[in-house]
Amino acid sequence: MKQMIVKKQNDSVRENNKTKNFDKIWKTLLLAASLSLLSAMPVFARGWCRGLSKNAWWYDLGNGNYYKSTWQWLDGNSDGIAECYRFDYNGWMAENTVTSDGYTVNQNGAWTVNNVVQTRGVSSENGIIKKELLGRINQYRIASGLKPLSESAGLSSIADTRARECSVLFSHTRPQGGSVLTEADVCGEILASNQDTPLKAFQAWQKSPGHNRLMLRDDFVRFGAGYYVDSRGNDYWVVLFSFYN
């Protein structure tokens, strides 16, 4: 009887060990599967990326898209000065060559003329355009008996991202899905495209009842503007509003 009890106890221990080992294996498999899923999820970060399949550079727009078959002015180091780069139909940046359309780019991919890198001021030009746009909205509010809104650098940064996204999908729905209204303190958004100047963008919104109502809401306190011109010369305008200080 004792032997049977011992045997049953030993069998029970072995079964428990098997169960524990199985649990460990199962948890390990689940963890591995979870890590695989996590590593498979796309994580988008805007900026220059070095290729894995090819030793070349491409530019991630931060929304699952990238530049291809285009020239693009880019301020990669955020110094307010943009250089011009050529991307082929696969999205790879041309470097240290003469492009198919006859322009020279250096070892860093920047367009050069007589060995001089061609540049364009980004922050100053865009900043002036956006300030004019916001200024026109505030003048309109004051003339309508409303308080002017405070400019928000945070909202303007988001608006700049939205302007670039609108070059991919001109919609209040973002290219990756969802709405900007779920981000930070954004409470309202107005969009325009191919208006050429801040005045024309403002006038287009003024003529639209829905957009006009947003510009004249008395409960907004802050706003920010975004502006972007794509490689085809199409311009995109965004203003974001917030109730919050």
From TrEMBL:
It comes from the Bacteria. InterPro entries: CAP_dom, CAP_sf. Gene3D superfamilies: CAP, Cholin Binding. Residues 135-241 form the SCP domain. PANTHER family: SCP DOMAIN-CONTAINING PROTEIN (PTHR31157:SF1). This is SCP domain-containing protein. It comes from Oribacterium asaccharolyticum ACB7.
